Amino acid sequence: MDTVPENPKDRQLYLWVRATLIIGVFSSLLLMLLGLTMLTVRDLQGGEFGIPLEGVSVIPVEQILEQSLLLEPLALMSLGTLLLFMTPISYIIIAAITFWMERDRPYLAISLAVLAMLSLSIFLSFH
User: Fold this and answer.
1) Rounded distance, CA 39 to CA 51, Å?
2) Distance between alpha carbon 76 and the CA centroid of its chain, in Å?
3) What are 67-123's pLDDT values in tens digits?
């Protein structure tokens, strides 16, 4: 059951977070389905549209956007996955902004600490 908080401040945060999660999940799903459909059509036609599947396991992160703009199926699916990973991070950013605007220092500090840990983890994973 979907219960919206009574408090106007909590309600605003709830609605922003809800919209962010819905948009993130459905955008991700759309990109993954588009990539999968294009990949299936390409394979059924026996064509070489996009990246050949033999020998390709991962598209480097720095190439995902460029390859997605070229409508490469695997890149679109990778972009969908990356967007799905970024959705909870956007939630933390929205929460931090909301706590900052409300001058709620303890929750702002917690949000920023979580965001810092996630950022550090992402940064270290590339090195």
Assistant:
1) 9
2) 12
3) 899 988 889 999 999 999 888 898 899 889 988 988 989 999 999 999 999 989 988
* pLDDT (tens digit per residue) in 7-16: 777 788 788 8
Task: State the Cα–Cα distance between residues 36 and 39, nearest whole angstrom.
Answer: 5
Compute CA distances 45 → 17, 32, 66, 72, 92, whole Å: 42, 20, 25, 16, 43
Nearest C-alpha neighbor of 13 from the set 107, 114, 115:
107
For residue 7, give the DSSP letter.
Answer: S
Distance CA 55, CA 104 (A): 51
Query: What pTM did the predictor assign?
Result: 0.72
Specify the DSSP class assigned to residue 59.
-
CB of 38 within 8 A of CB of 50?
yes
